[in-house]
Structure formats: C-alpha cells, structure tokens
Amino acid sequence: SPARELTQNPLQKTWEPYDNGLPAGHSAQRGVCMTNCPTLIVMVGLPARGKTYISKKLTRYLNWIGVPTKEFNVGQYRRDLVKKYKSFEFFLPDNEEGLKIRKQCALAALNDVRQYLSEENGHVAVFDATNTTRERRETICKFGEENGYKTFFVESVCVDPEVIAANIVQVKLGSPDYVDCSNDEATEDFMKRIECYKNSYETLDETLDKDLSYIKIMDVGRSYLVNRVMDHIQSRIVYYLMNIHVTPRSIYLCRHGESELNLKGRIGGDPGLSVRGKEFAKSLAQFINEQNIKDLKVWTSQMKRTIQTAEALGVPYEQWKVLNEIDAGVCEEMTYEEIQENYPLEFALRDQDKYRYRYPKGESYEDLVQRLEPVIMELERQENVLVICHQAVMRCLLAYFLDKPAEQLPYLKCPLHTVLKLTPVAYG
Amino acid sequence: AWASYMTNSPTLIVMIGLPARGKTYMSKKLTRYLNWIGVPTKVFNLGVYRREAVKSYKSYDFFRHDNKEAMEIRKRCALVALEDVKAYLLEECGQIAVRFLCTKQFSMGVVFFVESVCDDPEVIAANILEVKVSSPDYPERHRENVMDDFLKRIECYKVTYQPLDPDAYDKDLSFIKVINVGQRFLVNRVQDYIQSKIVYYLMNIHVQPRTIYLCRHGESEYNLVGKIGGDSGLSPRGKQFSQALKKFIEEQEIVDLKVWTSQLKRTIQTAESLGVLYEQWKILNEIDAGVCEEMTYAEIEAKYPDEFAMRDQEKYLYRYPGGESYQDLVQRLEPVIMELERQGNVLVISHQAVMRCLLAYFLDKSADELPYLRCPLHTILKLTPVAYGCKVETITLNVEAVNTHRDKPSLNSLPSSQSPVRMRRNSFTPRARADTVKHPRHHSVGSKPLDLLGPFPSLE
Q1: Closest to A427 measured CA to CA, from A22, A50, A10
Q2: Which residues belong to any copy of the 6-phosphofructo-2-kinase domain (chain A) (predicted)?
Q3: Does the ipTM surpass 0.95?
C-alpha cells in the first residue's frame, strides 16, 4: 500500500499523515516526554518533612514541561470534611473516629486521582499524604495496578530538628488548622501531631521494599536512594528532585536594554542597544551594586543586546545560546504591520493560539519551553542569579516560577527596563 | 563549549569496586559522553600501567594482598598514574580525569567517587566472559582457566575491600554507588553541575543487549538539485528507499522497535512507508543553515565567500549566520542521546549533520572528525554495543542517490588565515571573555588553587 499523504498543520507547522482528509494516528509528537501510561507519585514521610513543598514544586515543573499533572493533598480533603480542627488528638493512633475520617479522605482523594488520570487526560497525579505505613502503601499500589498506573514513591526523611522547626514556622503556623492559635500553641500541637505518626512509621526499606520504584530523599537532599526507575518520566522526576534545594536565594529576571529594532517596532534580529538601552544597562549596574548580592551569577543569551547590557555590569557573565529570543523565522526583523500585510493568515493564527503557534521556519512558545528546560534545571541548582534575556524567553521562565498555564504564558507582562526579583517563600 | 562554562575546577572521578563490576565499562562510557558534550575528559586505567610495569602476567598471585613485591609495583604504578593525571589536568587543560583505584584516600581538586557494587554471580560471570577473557592478561588460555584465575583474583581484593559507607566513614564524600547494574543507586553530596550530569547519565544507561539503527531520510527533491536545508519532500528514488527500508526492517525482525524522526517532511515521509508508529522530535531537525538555507554550495561560495572559506577551516565550530554550528547541534541533541541510552531497539531517521553527531557519540569520534564522518543517503548504520564499545555494520540498500558528502579541502586550497572563527560571528564576543582561547587552568574564579608545588599525596 502506498505511503499516506502528509499535510502540514497550519498552526504548529508539523507534518501529519491524513486519510481521506482526516488526520490519521500513526505518529506521535515527542514533546518533552511521552508517558505511556499514567503515573501515580506517592509522597511518604512524617509531617513537616517537605512533602507538600515537593509535591507542589514537582507538579509545577511537570506542567511547565508539558506533562499534565495535578496534586491531591489529603490534608485538604480532611479540612473540607472536618470543618474545624481541634487538636493533635485527632491524629492519635487509637482515635477510631479520626482513623475512619482519615481513611475516608484518602479514598476520596484516590477516587479523584482515578478520575483525573483515567477520565480527564491527566498524565501524572501526585498523592500528597504521610503514607507512612506499609499497609497504606500496599493499598495504593493495588489501586495503581487495578487502574493501570505506574506507581513511584517519593519519601522525605529528615531528623534535623532545626529543619523541622523551620518548616513549621514557614508553612504550618499559617495553616487554616491553626488560625486561632498563637505561634507557641500551634508549634506545641504540631510537634505532638508528629509524635502520633512516629510509632507506626515504616520507612521505605532496601530489602522489604526492593520491588517498589522510589526515591528516598535524606536530609533535604544531602543524599538519595533511588530504586528501580522504570521509565523516562520517573528518570526526569528523579533528576529534578536531585537538583532542587531550599537554600534561600533570589532570582532576578530582566530583558536586555531597549534595542535599535525595538525603537523601530521590529521583532527579532540581532541589533545593539539604543541610547536609552545603554542608560538602562548603567542603571541596572547601579541597582545590582546596591542590592549587595552574594555570589551573583549573571547569564545572558548570545545576542548582542543582552551581552551589551551585561557588559555594563562589569562582572563575569555566561552566555547561553538557548536563552536567545524566539526565532520568528520568515517574520524576523519585520514589524507587526508588515507581518499582517505579508502573512495575514499567520498573523491571525498566532492570535488564535499564541502558545502553540510556530512561525514559518521559526519557533513556538512551546518550542521555547523545551529549549529552556536546561536553564530551569540549572537555575534550580544555583543560588543568586540574574538572567538578562528577551521578552518571550522571560515569559517562559516567569511562567515556570509563578506556575502560569500555557494559555496565560504568552501574555505575561515583561516590559523593557523592568527587573523582576523572585524569592522562594513557603510553597511558592 | 557551553558545558565547560559550567565547571569551575577540575574534577577527579574515582572508580571503586571489585574486579568485574563494570568499572572500565562505566569509565569509558562516561568519558565518551563527557567528551561528546564538550567536557575534556580522559581515563587513567591502573591495569594499563600495571601491564607496562610487569611485562608478562603470570597468575592471580600478583594480586594477593600479602604479596609485598607486587604491592610495591602496584603502588608505584598508582603514583605514576597520579602524576599523569596531574599533568593532564594542568598541562593538557583537561577538566576531568577518570581513573581506577581500589582505595579512596587522596585529595586533588574536586573528587567524585563512582562505586559499582554487585552481588549477582551471573552478572559477574557474564562480565568476565565478555571482557576479561579477551584481556591482554590472558592471551591464550582456556576459558575455564581464565574464569578460575579471575575469580581468585577477585577474592584477593575482597580481603581488603572497603565499600563506601554513607552513614559513617564516608558521609562527607561526594559519590554515587551503583548497585546491581543500575537497579538501585545511592547518591551522596552532589556538589556541582558536572556531578549532577554524571549521576543522571549513570542512572540512564543500561547493559541490556539492543541495536540502534541510524539512517538519513530518503533522497529529497532538494538533494537532487544540491540545495541544503529547507523542508522538501522525497524524490522518486527517496520513496524507493523508503520501501526498501521497510523491507529491511521487516527482515531484521526487531523486537519492540521504536522509530524516531525529525519534524521535517522528508524524514516523516520516510517513516510513513514503514507502516508503524513513530515519534517526531523537533530536536532531530537538520542543522539550521541560517541565511544559507535552501542554497547550493556553489551559490553560497558566490554570495558568501568568507563564510564558505571559514566553514572549511573549522567546520565543527563554524556557525552559519543566523543559524547553527555542529557544536550547537551536539548541545541540542543531548536529550536524544540520553533517551537513546534509556531505550532498547531504536531506528533514528534523521539528517546528515545530525547523524554525524549521533554517530560521533557512539563511535567516540573527536570534534575534528565529526563533521567529516561518512553518512551517505540510502545507507543504514547498525550499531550494537559490544564489550567496551560499539560494533558498526554498514548496510547499503541498493537504491541510487546523490552524494552529499564534502571532504575537508587540502591545506593548500584554504585561503590565508582570517580572524579565528570563534571571534567572528553574530554573537558579539566582547574583549572581556578570555575563554575563547584554551589556556592552562591553574585555578578559577571562586575555587581554591590547586597545590601545584605540594608533595604527591600518598596512597596511605
């Protein structure tokens, strides 16, 4: 039989086979990672070990790289069911009423997981609860098997009292559970809450749990035990978890100073800075000096305008080609009016789906995200960094840090001569 | 190279483990990967030094821990090796030196340990058969004798073997412990970017037998008229090739074959003929020739004679104006390599420059050789991992095609030197960057200087 004809998708410029005018299904787009079957990530650990922090961060990362992910926090289900939190006694191991409600919440959450993964096209679900007993984990494994999900455990183990105390201050004192308590009362109650779990805590064991797929994170990332990574997505998750840290730091994002082409309303190209752009570079240098940042790393793209901006700072900087502005292909160096005049269809398509729209012989925002992933990974590893980049690039990076979805990303406000200072706090 | 900006101080990777635990396998593979992504790396194998010192190996008795004379020889070999490591790091600008030791006491730059632990006797026996039987130590022996002698050799090491202990003695060291050929990993105190990449790489490689097939799209309409780049469809001969490819693949009877293409029409058309599921990767697209896209080489030479000349001078580093270089391509292709490592049987239908980059990774070709590797149309390269390397089989499907290969012109025909390629590109290179020229790295910003004049660290 002859090979099928190909047609080019006008929005994404990708070639797809078609049969009788309808797209046929022999090919798949390799975005960043293809998940063959849904994955259930199961958090494990005592309270105040960073499970929710990890859940939320991982969910944000996976969604950004294009893997539909959702987190399910069992504590939230409990708060919805039991309107008012009274005390740690709810969590006592012999509190029958408490146990019943907690099991009910876990099952409700699992039910929502099933709906998300099997009915709503979710790829990954993060099940955020203590899951500290082998029995509970076996229940979850069975649930995964019955539904055809791959299960991957993420355990956080930490015995450092300072870390635990800091966590309590950062995220527990402000919890809805303790809205009517003083800080001291809340801390005391929470410590007793942790005690409720300790006796029955069964950490993931190298021998007893040797057939499970998991990563055990020890002491906030000092060391890791990784067992039976099964597929690509689990490998990416492990890599990500091993690169994140909790050391306080700030990330500064800004664009290059105004360029000569900016002045003419033209996109792309490799122009130098305008007079005002050079002034901005000087102001930026002054601002950075005043901030007195410890060990600041400065990154630019390989385009003249970001490098000229960095030069004004008088400090070493690194050039990344992957930080280059989005490639506008045939529209490079045109004004929007010229694009509308010469490529009216393209102009219209871009407004329809700005995230997925790929310039002819150029890139889309979606392509940009894939290109920028190593930057995000290295930003996670680093501490204080200033990234001097471009409008579309900065929108992608910002969307990652502020958890903005694809629909909003291409419209995030990133004006010239504006610095965004990002500082991690609590869960965001 | 983009990756070398990331490493500030030299890294010493120290392999640890009993014999036949895959240390050399991992060393060589890791070295190949690091060199490919642009981090100059070299292996220093103690066994090689020992064979230099002791011309003919007699038996496992050499390795007994109570054999004083042999111990002296082995210690001296280790010191000579260390000297070479130092020389490589200081003089040859290498950033990573991978070497063997079965002890773990020395200090030099940033150290990262890779330990391989294995208690599965089948795996160990298989390793011995695969690589030890053909070792220079055992030139003409019977298999059983080799196996026997080698197992006794392992026993000699077991007496003094101290595995890395993350809970107590070694808790401050940076290391990865690979357990049972990658079933489990213990990772401790990863310090920097390079160590993080090493860990990720080691966690993605496997030793299951499999085959990787590399080929280009069938001949395209642009190939016929000598135009580079673009997004043209297959010529009639190209379509013929696709049919022949389909037949070839069917005859190979490959289990669970994955098929990957780029997002350019010509590779997709080629895959379509196979009638199987395939995945499109944008990062497998051909090198972007920028302003030279869709021109012939004659047109490029006429319109951009300087660019044309420069490309022949330094083809790996040369970046087309508004386009890419081979070096950029390697960076772009790194996720493909990582995923190829994870996968089993894969057929990658790509393009000339892309295929050269992938091939250079598998066959450990240098940056100088890479842009001149032969990847003709209508030819499949079948790669099978074997021992420490890769076996290549070239299969020409008998469908005629144009020749798109250009050799490096002889020195005489190159014009007199212009400014170095790296200095002259769209990317504006300011004077501040001294990195464009290789210089000996004595110390770098932010890290302690190496003790150049200090005594050799002892092994004790």
Answers
A1: A50
A2: 34-248
A3: no
